[in-house]
Amino acid sequence: MSPAPARDGPPRFDLPYRLFGRARGVATGGHKALGQGANGAFLRHASLLEQPDARRIDMRASLLDPFGGLKVRRFEHRARIDVFVVLDLSGSMSFRRDGQGEDPVADLCAAIAHAAIRSHDRFGLIAAGPEPLAELGVRATARRGVPDELWRRLSAEPGAGRGSRGLLAAVEELPQRRALVFVVSDFLMPQAEIEDLLGALWRHDVAPVVVRSSAVEAPPPRFGLLETRDLETGRRRLLVMRPSLREKWIAHARARRAALDESFRRFGRPAFDLVDRFDADAFADHLLTGGA
Amino acid sequence: MRRPDWRTVALGAALALGVVAALQPETEAERPTYDVVAFVDITGSMNARDYRDASGRPQSRLEAVKTRLSTAVGRLPCGSKMGLGVFTERRVFLLFEPMDICRNYGAIAGAIAGLDWRMGWEGDSRVASAVFAALDMLAPMNADIVFLTDGQEAPPMRTDMPLEYSGDKDKVKGLLVGVGGTELVPIPKHDDFGRETGFYAMEDVPQASRLGPPPTGAENLPGYNARNAPFGEMPAGEEHLTSVRESYLGDLGRMTGLGYARLDQPDALAQAIAANARPRPVPVAVDLSPLPAAAALLALVALYGVPPLARLGRRRAPTHASRSFN
Amino acid sequence: MTGLGFDHPWALLLLPLALLPFLVSPLRLSGVPSAEVAPEDTLSRAVGAGIVALGALAIVLLVLGLSGLHRRDHVVERTGVGANIVLLIDRSSSMDSTFANRRPDGAEESKSVAARRLLTDFAARRPADRVAVAAFSTAPMLVIPMTDKHDAVRAAIGAIDRPGLAHTDVGRGLSLAFSMFDETSTETSRAIVLVSDGAAVIDRRVQDALRAAAARDPVRLYWLFLRTAGARGITDRPPPGDPDSPQTYPERHLDIFFKTLGLPYRSFEARSAGEVSDAIREIDQLEQRPTLYSETIPRQDLDWLCYWAAAGALLLLLAAKLSERRLEDWEGEALLPSPLRGGVGGGGGAGEGATRIVASRRRALHSAPPPTLALPRKGGGNAPDVHSQQPDSGRAAS
Predict the structure, then answer these.
(1) Domain VWFA spans what residues (chain C) (predicted)?
(2) For C172-184, what is each residue's pLDDT tens digit?
(3) Which residues does chain C have within 8 Å of residue B22's beta carbon, measured at their own beta carbons?
(4) What is the DSSP secondary structure assignment for residue B195, as one 8-state letter?
(5) What is the ipTM of this complex?
(6) Which end of chain C is more exposed for a tag (fewer CB within 10 A), N or C?
(7) Which of C62, C143, C162 should be substituted to probe chain B, the one whose Cβ sees the most B Cβ atoms within 10 Å?
(8) Chain C residues within 8 A of A41 when measuring between CB atoms
């Protein structure tokens, strides 16, 4: 099968995401679920009396049974899950997302949507800045057009406002059933707020995605005056760039990232770093090794 | 290198303009200055109180002259000179010659404040003669005249003998300043010790001139007596009351080539002096530095002021643009 | 005292403009997701405050310059050697004749002209003096109050050769002179110089007043008597038999009266301009006492100083502006390793099929459907299908 033409963002690929633990739900899908099903990975043998399914009689096992009972193969149930993206669209997320160049966030969300729908899961999105952005949200759906549409909408929505308190309110709308939730944010909020958010998502399998920009983590090496403006608060800061400050700056960024990692580990998974641009391979690697 | 930021340009411009301002560019200009001698009438009628001071209390004409004249000369451009004289009887008495007002303002103001009717050496008030005398005095000094008087001739002028001025009308310029109100007011009377003892009554002052030969036809006047009363008996009159004689002073001014102004607020007096005295241009350096300094300030204000204004405009305009998708 | 003044104080209304630098930066700002991305830095904070201050300072200085800041002319008290002198000058008409009692002609100057000339010299020689000038004739006249402006003194002395008035009222002139010393003139240095060419009877009441004034304000009194040829002198005594009354010998009796005042008193009788000059020189030598006099320091414009300082501030600002850096010009440097790529990962076990996908490259990844894909509904995930749904997708999603 050929990839979708890149009319709405970069080409999209399937992603090997996985839900930690077993999914619940009756709708058939691609994820290990609670219960037994008729298809998929072998689980155990059962007696035909217990499970009168003549089509799945395991002849070999029946013959090897010293008691001569007829054995029926039981399989794991595989269920469909909901894949959600909880997207922080506060002002800080507008950094380098002016709709001109690449938009890694839109790329990532569209890629997740694409992959989820391709995997016969449902995809949904919850976006919030300081207030929940209901009109940007996507209800759990398997509709095919969603990735492209989402990509276009997110590209046009740089994010605004101060703080991401809206996220906490918005995650209430997630389904009760355990879902895979990608929390996409720069996590440049107070540690307590991060933990509140992660705590509110206890029911779900949370996969954080940290949106980072190497430009602000490692400043330009030249001497000079750099005046920064906080995209959320508008606060200005003047910085006298020099090697010692640059080193301090990098160390500062490292420390912040390490603290973040600490939180994420406490709440489950390590985070994926979306640095500068969306690298589908790296994301796939991440999902395989550390994530779902 | 990229095109520099406009703010860099604004800063550079402000810097350059600031340096230009600091170098104090100058241009030469001429400023009119005046050289005047003020003569103040200190005769008795100047004690009449028909002015009001700043707090609204009645003020004598002489006091009004003193406060307003010293303020007015302070308004004359620097480099102007002023002398001071007093007038009673038929002559003027020069207290000091013209001196630079700006440098000696304290002394001038002190001298003006020291004017007193007690300086008067005689009670008569021959305004026209004194003006002529003052003009004679000033002609060799090349100074202009400011003659402050109420115009009250005491004793009154002969109505049948027209006044004539024989001097040169253009030698001395300047103005007569009429002091007093247009309403008739009584004149305070003082005793030998200078204490005020009431007001002059009609009988206290001559109501008509008795100078010179009697006019023709005086025989027909009431009370005529060839030896004892060649002018007839003293007619009733209002010479014991006083008001500013504006028309008389105006005529006197026209006769002598002087202007006339009523004593009003100091600014008006300074303007009247400037309008009537001969301006003597002196070269002065005019500092041009405010121009580049103002431009530098403008550049700085633009540097700091335009971004917030632009932001304000941007915020107002595109409310629909950010949500255009929905 | 020393004070600052403004030529155009209304221009100070522009001072609030100096608040602008606190609100706006001359540098181009670089948006960052959060102010916390940069570490705290004391130097940076100081420089930031400095740039704000420089901007405000430049505006304040320009406004101050525009409003014509200057140091007002002020008076400095100095001590010098001189005196506080009241020149009491006779301006009776007799002063207009010469010492020989003739009408002045080209050869001989009148007494008033000589007095004017010599007194002008006298005042010019003594810069530390404070001088007041009074004239007397029929009435006493204050000419110039006590001043250290020698211009003013010269102008006042300059007027004494104008035609004078009839009488000589010495007594009231003197009492005016006594009243002209102000508080700033130190008591020890007060002197009255009476210049006259005659004397007159002093009214008894005025005599009493003068005695009281002399007791109250001790001054030194000098009488410079310009004696006209043929007139009586100070020391002339009446021949025996003649009545010795103030009416007939006013000069002698005035001298006697002065001596009774109890003041340091000297009289000088001058019969010619030369003698006047000698007398004045003697007074000059006698009146050498410490005095407080004031000197006026003329106003100093300070606007040029403001402009230079503003230019200095602007130069620093420009230097700051020229060393401006922006994040926008900077692509960044991936110095920070992703914690996961650094080998931290591997927390979850690999599910089935995982190894296959890890091994596959991108091309393989997107061409292979997930291995455990359940039966596709509605014909599976074909790309054309995706795009055919686009027209109504927006509506469906919102």
Answers:
(1) 84-222
(2) 888 888 888 877 6
(3) 304, 307-308, 310-311
(4) -
(5) 0.72
(6) N
(7) C62
(8) 352
